[in-house]
Amino acid sequence: MYQVMVVEDEQWIRSAVVKMVEQLGGAFEVVAEACNGEEALQTIYQVWPTIVITDIMMPIQDGLWLVREIAERQLPIITIILTGHNEFEYARQALRYHASDFLLKPILEEELSNALEKAKAQIPQFHNLRHYYLSIQQLFDKIVDYDAMALFKEQARIVNCILDATDLQENEKGVLLRTFSSKYNDLIQSMQPDFTWLPFSVGEEVSAHFLKLTEEWLQCYNALNNVEMRQIIRKVCDFLQAHYQEEHSVSDITQRFHISVSQFSLLFKKYKGQSFINYLNSLRIRQAKHMLVDGELKVYEVAEQVGFQSLPHFNRVFKQLTGQSPNEYRKWLNV
Predict the structure, then answer these.
(1) Which residues pair with 78 in a beta bridge?
(2) Which intervals hold domain HTH araC/xylS-type (predicted)?
(3) 8, 157, 167, 194: least buried by Cβ within 10 Å?
(4) Residue 175 three-state SS
(5) Per mean pLDDT, which of 13-22, 205-214, 249-258 is the most reliable?
(6) What does the alpha-carbon distance between residue 130 and residue 137 come to, in Å, rounded to a whole number?
(7) What is the pLDDT averaged over residues 311-319?
């Protein structure tokens, strides 16, 4: 199964593309949606889609920015561009960043199917790298849960796995280690703005470089005022409880509560045991269950009232969290 993410700020277009992909069935499954490039990049690091279908023109960060970020970070993801008649030059620029294809709006199902098949043919080039990227991401997902000794051991394990890998070319090892180093540097700098970046060079002593980064992270994290951070996370949760039906992105929340995105993402997961997106979805699905049991609203009306912008997205999240579709849930309760 190939995991697809759809990025489009116009909800009706996003829903239409999601529906097309799901109707194709077979090898493709929509696992996430986003309404701008910034939200998409944050979501990528949570769900790791195989293929990203993205619009060009979007608010905050557009599709060209997203495609460039995916290419420059050398993420193991194939991109497909959606474009309008007057955006052709942007699409050409996206192709420079290795976009697989671009589709002209309005999108035809046959053209989307062909583009996905073309993207699928390119996926084997990332087969070896994907496992290592996921290992790196899992370390950062859990980094606040490690004590110092466990973190040193896990970091060293990942580095040694990359260095000793027989299924990787030397240039691929360099890409992975640079990515690992960049993510560490980004994380530390987001928590400590005056931190001096520690660039990675393939010729240097690799173990010493990552040992230094781990030491820097531990010093930075231990210096945080954790009492203050707990209070911020508590205020965020109170806000979401009252406003779960509204559309929220991580960037919206961090601006409202004056905290960096990296700090927020790490600490939210530490104190709540799940990501911001999963927490918000859990709130929405909990409320949706009450509405479904009540029986007065149609499923699409429930989806709208709890904050989902598309019915397919609501159905997908509901089944992920409950093991049943909304209609199956109603039948199970004889509603």
Answers:
(1) 51
(2) 234-332
(3) 194
(4) helix
(5) 205-214
(6) 11
(7) 87
